[in-house]
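Allow me, if you will, to draw on your knowledge of protein folds for a short while. I have a record of one protein: its chain in single-letter code and its fold written as discrete structure tokens. The full record is reproduced below for your convenience:
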Amino acid sequence: MSKRFISLREVGRQLEIPPSTVVYYKDKFQQFIPSSGGDGRRRRYPVEVVDIFRRIREMFTENWSVDQIEKELSLKFGRLRFDQQSDQSNDQHETFGGSPGFSREVGDILAKMADAMENQSLFRNEIRALRDEVESLRRERRDVERDYATKVSALEAELAALRRRMASRAGGESINFPPTEFLASPLVICSEGEYLGVQGKGGRSFSLKDFVRLIERKMSESMAVETSWRQQDGHWVLVVRTEDTGRKREQNVVLVAKKTVTPSANTVTEIIRLNIDGNDAPDALLLTLFRQLRAVFNG
């Protein structure tokens, strides 16, 4: 056997195995892991143990049982353990003046203490490495969030500039369009003092943005669709104009909505009026509409 020795930390480094895994293998199959003297961090292992740990790793990866691994180690590495035990027995016999039983008992106690100290050191190093990794991930996350915020600010500035250019081309008139928060808030109707909305899978609420997309998609299947927004008396008014050129038929849908804070302190977008071709939709029709939306949204 080679006279070169290494530590468990070096075994883990060579095989790219976490220290805790190396310790687990050593404790689980200690009868096949030869070592040489020393306590705690001074305990060393012959370089041949790298092959033993590598084989153990391979067998665990291949889902071998503990019994199967022990049989394999016994056949392939049993001689190493036998030689090591013989060397230890001779060393202990010489150390304690010819009392094998007593020397073996003391040797076992010292070995357990040394293993515990070494394991503790390895675990501490692994915990330190994990903490460093967590801190690195946190820094990476902060960098990503900062980069995202920078890009969002740049896009918002670009959008504002685009709106100013379009307004200038339109003769100085400003372009009205609801803010993102208003479009993304849960869409509700108020019936007899109760706010009713539509919630889909995953807890996501049906929003005004979803509603507009639904109208545009449905109407555009057979008609030309044009949408526009304007503000009126603190409300947002959506006008959807459709034209069926084949049948020479037009249809206008006007939706009036406002920002509302419910008694439970939730910010929502409330439909306060829905007009189709000059006729206001009654509350019963809105309730029916929301029931159909619930079926479509959860379908």
